[in-house]
Specification:
With 404 residues, this protein is mainly α. Among the domains are: 126 residues; 151 residues. It is 57% helix and 0% strand. It contains 19 helices and no strands. It is globular, with a radius of gyration of 22 Å. It comes from Trichophyton soudanense CBS 452.61.
Length: 404
Amino acid sequence: MTEVPPIISFINEQQRQQQASGRRKGVKQFHRKSRVGCQRCRTKRIKCDETKPVCRNCERVEEPCIYDRLPKDESMEAGEPAETKDWRILELKLMHLYITETGPTIAFDPETSYEVFVDALPRMAFQSDGLLYSIYAVTSLHQARKISSTISESSMLEHHHRYLQLAFKHHHKELISFSKEKADVIMLTTHLMRLVAFVMLSERILEPYAPPIEWLRITSSNAKFFQTAMEAIGDDPSTCTAKLIRSTPLTLDEDNAQHDFPDPRPSFEHILTARSKDPDDNDDPVFWDDGVRVAYEGAMGYLGSIFRILHNYYGPPGPIRRRIVVFPFIVDPRFIDLVAEGRPRALVILAHFFALIVFLDTYWFVGNTGAREVRAIAAHLPPFWQGLMGFPLYIVENGFTCKR
């Protein structure tokens, strides 16, 4: 059995939410016993109608639908696009859009990573079907956003789903045969898939609110792969992996900042020390162990440093933009666990991250995601913790700019 990368459950859940309201349930059909049905149907020993991306059984109980088996007579290349004129034109248009618009926006800045995403990545896709289909999957989402502000209403969504599934299959094959020579290709494919997961946050249902745990865990696990890739590459500075890591400094050049802030936490110390009077509050600092304390202080300290530098930074915007988006990469995994537990303090800190995302709202793959998440978290929190949401809500309503 071929396992599917963890990201697929997240994407399937997004697809189910997009389609559940619009799909009509017909008369129940009887099918032959399926050995390639979805994972849940096989576990429950019930018949799967094999509807993709979400079978009717999973749709009915609102569970993620994961297809992790292929028919015995079906190769990994099954489902490849037919060689028709229309399909070739579609892929030519998608590649052109990637090179002229999508790639440059993903790169953030021309000084460092433009060469990686606009020049090197398309060339490397000639040797990697996983990377090639990831390009098409991301770019079809970009085209969908250009056509309609709501991705789920775009005709490009069907093409996106198909390319994404193909990208999963080929990417998994490359992961199994990982080597130093494939490190860059696999790293870039992973990056594009992670971008897809982030874009789909703008389509997710926020009432009742549940934090985007799948996306956070996907991004956190990708950080481990980056580390593996760097260990395989070694000290070769010419690789795309090394160039990207060099373009994302965790500390900004002090020459570009008006002031030096050795400890970024004081401005947000009240979030770390807040104590609710609710007797059911299980997040009192008095009871924290070292792991919880390190997770909270590290997350808030990192975000606090960005907030403070933003208002006094005169350098190129690329490094600070990248510093924002790598937060889920560098944050302690224990913090993500605290978010998953629904701890109000962790959600307040997460809201501060999404407030920073508002700084990037002019990018097509960001849009109003930051504002949506901040407002949803604020509405979800108990009254005491809502009092700590003033700063993120202010940014959502008023915005802020980085001094140039």
